[in-house]
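Milestone M4 deliverable, item 7.
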Amino acid sequence: MHNLFLGEVRHHFRDIWGLEVKDSQKTRDPSTHSPEDQKKWIDHVVKALRTRSLSSLRKARRGYLVAFCQLNGIVPTETTKAHYAAALSNWVNRHSSDDVDAVDLLQVPPPLSTATENFHIADNAYDVSKHQVFTASIIGKVRSDIKGTYLPSWLERPPSNFGSSSHGKLKADHWRTICTISLVISLVKIWPHDTASSSELKVLENFVHLAIAVDLASRRSMSPERARLFDAHMASYLRGIREIFDHDLVPNHHLSLHLCTCLLLFGPVHGWWAFPFERFNGIIQRLNTNNKIDEIPLSYMRLFCLGSRLRHIFDSTDWPDEEEFDDLTFAFRQMYPDTTQGSRIVDTVSAASKLARQNSLRDLFNRLMKKETQLPEGTYAELMQLLNHCGSASADGAAAPFIAFPDTRDLPSSRLHRRAIFIPKLELGNITYGTRDDNIRNSFVCVRDPLSSDTTSAPIPGQISQIFLHRRTTPDHEEDLIEPFIVIDLYATLSQAHSAHDPYLRFPLLNTKLVYDRFSRSILIRPEHIVCHFARLLYQPDHISEACNVVRALGRVCVLHAFPTYMSLIISCRTSCASVLSRSR
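Output delivered:
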């Protein structure tokens, strides 16, 4: 998938949009240049080139230097302002002689007919210039949104100074997060459909095709419809960069048109991409080899098998319920955590892993038993309602309804304990869920209401307010079961009038929408009712009278919106890959 994350995404931002921003202490936005101001700065560049003053040349804005280079076919080694100035100066020096001043040979860009912050050559119908999309103003807004966005702990946060060379080399996962989350949140609201220009909307739609294609290709489930939908969006994206930016396609673009075939043949990319190999390469590089290079393969395989056997022993053994064994299993799980994240094994939980989960919860419950408290009356009533409504799907498979405790009636039912242990976070595998008071970044989740009869509705965004462990007796009274429950405060959905001003609804495949920054109600759920985390940004839209949250669902399988079938979307946006390639020739 480096073809997409490092090839397509990084290439798009750097080589097409011009992502090179110099860190500056200035915080004010650049002023707008009128056509008269543009003429003055164009003359300034010409004068600086005649006097061979590189320092004077660098005083001009980057857009003027880029325009001169593009118009005269001058290509700098990098796309920074300093490199553009140096490339212009070097070109003039190389082509000048005693009789000819190369400045007279330069084509001079004309001023634009309208005022602008970012001077460029209006050389196409969309008035969009290559390397001029990521202006200082847009980068500033993107950085501000990155700082204000809550991401779950399992997702690596991109650098807050995105666009600067000071953050060092970005990893492939950083580029995926930036493309499919950070810029989706920022650019759609920066360029809303009701105020953005036609050129900005064209650039946004082209980017959205790329973001959707990358997101679809990296899902943990795959179908023929989803693979062909990826292919359709990728083809539309490539056609767009040819049409808007007149950008020549590179080998990575060609390779991406073959990914659909790979997805159809091999399924989700997590089963065959190169990330596991690179991770193991990193582990091997950090090993202490003792200069015995020839023994590395055998030692590595032996320790790998040893670790696998130990995990199986600890997960499948019914250890005695004694403090010493509890401490042993807890220490082992802390030292050797589960490593099933990113594998389809998560979706096919074995009996041994279910036993391990129950043992882990029992260990946690026993260590925190002194903190057991009485459940509030409302929470206790919701718990009983949930267990009685979902009895056939409960951990113990109880069919008979629960009754309140204490209850002296002679009924064939289990009495439900009123006490529970409240905890700040819950770790299931490598996924962490936390409360908003103690672990806020892991508290934003999309859930399904277990008491709702509508099983086809979209997941509901909300925030975790409480997590507690509850102990109850199985119907045969042979053992106690420990099960976690989660209290979710659901966000209020936008009214019909305000939904018309939600800029994200134009692109349902982005799995993003606005909700009010207030709660409508609370529900009690089991962890399996959580669909996914979501990225959250507080946002005040211009046409909505109260603060909202941007909700970017992070599910790798399901989606946030109910929208037409994949095939109908394919029909609407499907383009011929052959036509894209023919336009690049």
